[in-house]
Amino acid sequence: MSVSSEGDLATSHRIAAALKEEILSGEYPPGTRIRQEDIATQFGASRSPVREALRMLEADGLINLVAHTGAWISELSLAECEEMYQIRERIEPLLLRLSIPGLTDDQIAELSKIVKELEKNKEVEVFLKLDREFHLLTYAGAQTTLLSEMVHRLWNTTQHYRRAYTKLLAADGFKPAHYEHHLMLSAIKKRDSEDAERILYGHIRRTRLELSNHPGVFTPNNQ
Predict the structure, then answer these.
(1) Cα 8 from Cα 26, distance rounded (Å)
(2) What region, left, alpha or beta, does residue 26 occupy, with left being phi > 0 and alpha being psi -120 to 50 degrees?
(3) Which of 70, 103, 124, 160 has a CB 3.0–4.6 Å from the CB of 141, allowing a cystine?
(4) What is the DSSP letter of 33?
(5) Tens digits of per-residue pLDDT, 125-135?
């Protein structure tokens, strides 16, 4: 690999990481067009590393690339989102089952810390960040590549709709989520994979059903 190509790759990773953070934080609503020239200007980069950064983001499930047309932030219909959540209901409990035996005591202590921070918080964006940290850390003990990548991609693609759901929860102080997090943490501490699977299935299913009851979430500018 040449020095210039190594530099381009490093630039691509830097751009992709920055854009990923912006997309997950809601700065780009679903369906927003991403223009290569704007990104190149924003980061002071040439088109080549920008194109590679966009390919990385597509692989992460954050954008859709259309040949000879452009890039758009991933956008889901209600039916697509329901399908993704049904997939999550089935594969995330499996990933959690595979993860629990491999979680370290330090990781479980960190999960306890995150749950406490979640309960203190009242802000939607902080809740989203901590909730994501909690769930992805529960999967950190799994020795798998394919399943972990699938789950991370589904989390990325549904992020905007999790934000909409979280806004619905905010009125009740996120109480249902706090309760389920405690139940899940308790099962993890006991290394009870079966109970943890059951709790996580219900946790994801409840989100899906709530979203299906609020179709307005899937109209433009409501994310």
Answers:
(1) 27
(2) left
(3) 103
(4) E
(5) 999 999 999 99
Question: Could you tell me how far CA 78 lies from the centroid of its own chain?
Answer: 18
Structural domains present in the chain: 3-73 (1.10.10.10), 78-218 (1.20.120.530)
Contact between 160 and 30 under an 8 Å Cβ cutoff? The reply is yes
Segments in the chain forming alpha helices (H): 3-24, 36-43, 47-59, 78-99, 105-120, 124-138, 146-157, 159-170, 175-189, 193-212
Bridging pattern class, strands 63-66 and 33-34: unpaired
How far, in Å, are 3, 24, 47, 181, 220 from residue 63 at the CA level? Answer: 29, 11, 17, 30, 16
pLDDT digits (tens, 9 = 90+) for 82-122: 999 999 999 999 999 999 999 999 999 999 999 999 999 98
How distant is the alpha carbon of residue 44 from its chain centre? 28
> Are residues 110 and 137 in contact, defined by beta-carbon separation less than 8 angstroms?
yes
The whole model's pTM is what? 0.87
Contact by Cβ (8 Å): 46, 7: no
Structure tokens at 12: 């691509």
